[in-house]
Amino acid sequence: MNIVLRSILATSAVVAASSVQAAQPTPTPTPTAPASFVFDTTTDGTHVGSGNGNALIFSDSKNVITMKATGWTRDFNGSFIASEIVPFIDNGLGIIQPGEGGSGAYHQIDNVNGWEFAILQFSQAVSLQSAKLNTFRLWDRNYVDNDAFIGWNSSNLSLANALTSAQARDLFDTRKGGFNSDSTQFNSNLQTYSRPSTDMSNVWIVGGSFGGPDGQNDAFKLAQLTVTAVPEPATWAMMLIGFGMIGGTMRSRRRVKVAYA
Ligand SMILES: [Ca+2]
Ligand SMILES: [Ca+2]
Ligand SMILES: [Ca+2]
């Protein structure tokens, strides 16, 4: 190999090495793995009001997210009626539809005499991963069944204000999605849904199944919810600004190198 060729090859190697360096991509933000939060609703929440239209407030096990639960009934005329949500410690949350308390109470979340559901408002958007729907037999039935309807929606409503019936109807009617959670799919009361992050919403609806899937009434107590959340938009904005600054610094360093080469 002659000297000229050797020199060209050597130069090419240097150029190749430096282009490899130059080709180093600017770091791009990698999405943080969603964080998991568990709400144990067999603990007594913070009570807001009492009787029909009351609310219970819970924090997750890490004390990051607040969840406000209210109880509702959609009666057979299609009216949305504020109901009482009750913490039955050890069993979970039940709902008492107006007129179903006292002796022979239907204190579960059920779909007898109307469709009962809990509206769960969160302090930030979350995706539901699992729920524990403890079967709880209705006093006048000889079976247990915990088919459920799960829906979700986004809302600007403040957790500090009481929900009106019109707002409850609106949250249900304009929901972004929902599914029937057929209990035959599950071997235990803990039902795993693993909703994708596209279903991230700050309002979730959990009730007895709405119009299906079998002829048996559903009755359960809501004992636990596991949700996931990604960083809030403000956090993302800070991260993007941070990465933008790193990128800017690298670019200006490159310019300096070129200027003094
Ligand atoms: Ca009930
Ligand atoms: Ca009922
Ligand atoms: Ca059923």
Automatic annotation (TrEMBL):
Kindly give the InterPro entries that the UniProt entry links to this protein.
Ice-binding_C (IPR013424)
Q: What is this protein called?
A: PEPxxWA-CTERM sorting domain-containing protein
Top-rank taxon, per record? Bacteria
Organism whose genome encodes this protein = Sphingomonas floccifaciens
Query: What does the record give as the organism's lineage?
Result: Bacteria, Pseudomonadati, Pseudomonadota, Alphaproteobacteria, Sphingomonadales
| UniProt domain Ice-binding protein C-terminal: residue ranges | 229-254
Signal peptide extent: 1-22
Sorted alphabetically, the keyword list is: Signal
